[in-house]
Amino acid sequence: MIENTASFTTTELRAILDKSEFHNLNESKLFTGVSIDTRSVKQGNIFVALKGENIDSHTLIDKAFEAGAEVCFVEKKSMSELNIEIGDRPIIVSDDNIEVLGELASFHRMKFNIPIVAITGSNGKTTTKEMIADVLATKYNVLRTYENYNNLLGVPLMLLSLNNSYDLAVLELGTNQSGEIYRLGEIVSPTHALITNIGREHLEFLLDLDGVELEETYIFAHIRSEGFAFVNYDDARLKLYGHVLQKFMTFGTHENAELRASIILDNDMKPILDFDYDDKKFSVNMQTIGLGSAYNAIGATAVGIHFGVEFELIKKALENFASPLYHGYGRMAIETHSDIKIINDCYNANPDSMIIALSTLSKFSGDGKKVAVLGDMRELGEWADQEHKDILKLASESADLVYLTGDEFAKAYSEHSQMYPNVQHSSKSEIAQKLKNTLKSGDIVLVKASRGVTLETVITDLKNII
Q1: What letter would DSSP give residue 323?
Q2: List of domains in the chain
Q3: What does pTM read for this prediction?
């Protein structure tokens, strides 16, 4: 859990949350730190009770007070359902504690006159955020989004951890439904914004590419008047925003981008980027693999240049960058076991990221087999059937062997199985054993699916038996 020392007086709380009901608060009190987890509550904290999938922390208010919380936010509905008694305890009753958390974070953010770079987009947000933070960290003290703290719960927690030690913040904003980026933008009030791309994500809720574009570009509406945007000139939709934004910098492989880069993949699929900016040229040899990370690096370079980071420091940061592994799942992170390469790209998947990953797999050189292990792409709504059929066809063309798992891929495969002799559909638990019987030294395996599929368990099982 991200800890913080954000402070609020009772007067400030009343001003921020004027529609909430205040009970038994000391009007001269100063509260320090905001917590949503009783295990991390410290003396003087504000505790915000939340109802989660597995636990409702409204049932833990007594523990929060015992641990040192000096005021608790509770939701009116939960108070009624759980018969929570206020008594003489300092309690603030609200309609929505997620909203409370956002308002607290927004108020705290306004205490700091520092650049805040917001990163959003359909693909590569986290890698781009990490690269940007690494580049800027060569010159500044940077607060960056921790792991996947990119939603209406995580972003406020990141903002609340702002303190005077930071020169800059780089925050990732995620969405899966209409209006989420708009609300996150209200909370963050970014000074700078970068959208990685507009792609086929969360179509169950965002409907189509027009819906994705509307949702993601809300962030541009929240840049302050003196703010700055970084525009991906390779994206046909995003490049048009150069005509409406006041202050911006374009980047990409497009010949008309202000920061231009060419990309070559070496024999190990590691990108080599040749940059050209303002008649100055430099090259970067990445340690990551695939085209996706190369595009992310171009965006990170644009941000670094804007903030005055020297080319040599940008080069060093990007050449030292390695794709992180979180709890076993990765983003195009490569591992080698028994001379078999495994591309761990289990963090998430949508049609566009699947295409990039399969393109990377197909370009690997060597005599070994190219194997793709793919799980369902979630939240595609009415587009799910066709998108899974399209990826099935592409996978069969890109890999020597393909193992599929999940209901959507099962449906796509069952309708056309005779067309794809190199494809099998299996349960997740069976795939590792099938791979063991198939793989040989020199082979390479791509493992990719949406986060909810937890396909990294296949990698864990495979490493235990090869």
Answers
A1: -
A2: 7-95 (3.40.1390.10), 112-322 (3.40.1190.10), 326-465 (3.90.190.20)
A3: 0.84
Contact status, residue 330 vs residue 346, Cβ threshold 8 Å: yes
3-state secondary structure of 441: coil
Q: DSSP letters along 329-386, please?
A: EESSEEEEETTEEEEEE-S---HHHHHHHHHHHHH--SSSPEEEEEEPPPS-GGGHHH
Distance between alpha carbon 300 and the CA centroid of its chain, in Å? Answer: 15
The answer to whether 132 and 170 have CB atoms below 8 angstroms apart is: yes
For the chain, 466 residues long, give each residue's pLDDT as a single digit of tens: 678 999 999 999 999 999 999 999 999 999 999 999 999 999 999 999 998 888 889 999 999 999 999 999 999 999 888 889 899 999 999 999 999 999 999 999 999 999 999 999 988 899 999 999 999 999 999 999 998 899 999 999 999 999 999 999 999 999 878 889 999 999 999 999 999 998 766 666 656 777 888 889 989 988 866 789 999 999 989 999 887 888 999 999 999 999 999 999 887 888 999 999 999 999 999 999 888 899 999 999 999 999 999 999 999 999 999 876 655 556 778 888 888 989 998 888 889 889 989 988 888 877 899 999 999 998 888 889 999 999 999 999 999 999 999 999 999 998 888 888 899 898 888 998 999 889 999 999 999 998 889 999 999 888 887 7
Q: Which residues, at least 6 apart from 402, have a Cβ–Cβ distance to it below 8 Å?
A: 371, 372, 373, 374, 392, 395, 396, 420, 422, 423, 424
Cβ–Cβ contacts within 10 Å for residue 306, how many?
19
Structure tokens belonging to residue 171: 């925050």
